[in-house]
Amino acid sequence: MRFLGVRTVQLASLAGFSWGGSKLDEVQAAAKPRTCPIQIQRPEQVKDDVLLSRKVINHLDKSNLKLRLYQYETCPFCCKVRAFLDYYGFSYELVEVNPVTRSQIKFSTQYKKVPIIRSDDTTLTESSLIISQLATFLQRPDQSLDQVIQMYPGVDSTNEKGKPVVNYPNKFFIMKGKMEGEANMAAAREEREWREWVDNWFIHLISPNVYRNWNESLETFRWFEQVGDWHRAFPAWERVLAVYVGAAAMFLLSKTLKKKHNIADEREELRKACRDWMAAIGPNRKFLGGDQPNLADLSLYGAMNSFYGCSAFKEVILEEKIADWWRRMDSVVKNHEGRKTLEARNPQKQ
């Protein structure tokens, strides 16, 4: 069960969540206003047996991918994918998955985690793999999405519990199809290393921080219910079940995760992670990618947005220098400032 995630602060305020004049208000007020005319709809009618949480439409997106993202609004892995899609201005539909019944992903008989993206009959899984595949799609106008997927072969393996799994050894690579100079190769290597750091370390710090006691765990799930629009998607009994069962399960699981990852002081480790990230960026770059965010920036921003409504965000993130970086990321993602890359891509003949 991978809860943790969130919407933008704008949507949180619409849902009735208030910070009561906290530093988050100051951060948001300082951000640039949204300037991109991308349309967001909230359909009221069921489509293909599911109710869409929302539909993001960029009329200049000529990719014809017809993306549909199945997610938990409160999952850091899903937040990573949404940050990527929103920054580059993809059109996509979004389906909120019931965390208890998972009925919305019954079509996926083998893979039962989120995020899942469908593009017509093509299914994409695993957040970092999805991001790499779509980033390669942007870089390779000579290739269709199906052709790009073939560049990421899976390898059968077993996990620590002995269960069969499929690994993707090159899931952090962007397959540009051409040789690059030494500087670009170094930048790509740095991007891969920090994307792995987000997946393998930073995300593991979230659960121990947002579920560190019963009160915070319950508070977190009640907030998840609000920002996830669960009242639109699920009946009352399912919402109550998800909040209380989920809060209890994640409270217990967080203790296991804390021990597994040798986390002594969850708040202090989160502060150190923020400082490590800012040290990597250094004083002369706005983002790890330079003047524009790269995939590591988008991944960390998405993961951080998964808990911006929780006490840990208010107590740690907003008290660190990383808050300035987060404000810049919030602006460029909400304004879809990478959209020209997508809009300039020549549509493929299918």
Estimate the mean pLDDT confidence.
Answer: 86
Total strand segments: 8
CATH class: Mainly Alpha
Counting DSSP H or I runs of 4 or more residues, the number of helices is 14
Shape: globular
Question: How many domain regions?
Answer: 1
Distance between the termini: 37 Å
**Strand numbers in spatial order across the main sheet:** 1-2-4-3-5-6
Question: What sequence of helices (H) and strands (E) makes up the elements?
Answer: HHEEEHEEEHHEEHHHHHHHHH
Low-confidence sequence ranges: 1-31
SS class: alpha+beta
CATH-derived topology: Glutathione S-transferase Yfyf (Class Pi), Chain A, domain 2
CATH architecture classification: Up-down Bundle
Q: What fraction of residues sit in β-strands?
A: 5-15%
Main sheet makeup:
6 strands, mixed
Radius of gyration from the alpha-carbon trace, in angstroms: 19 Å
Share of helix, binned:
40-55%
Main location: membrane
Keywords: Fatty acid biosynthesis, Fatty acid metabolism, Isomerase, Lipid biosynthesis, Lipid metabolism, Membrane, Prostaglandin biosynthesis, Prostaglandin metabolism, Transmembrane, Transmembrane helix
InterPro entries: GLR_AS, Glutathione-S-Trfase_C_sf, Glutathione_S-Trfase, Glutathione_S-Trfase_N, PGES2, PGES2_C, Thioredoxin-like_sf
EC number: 5.3.99.3
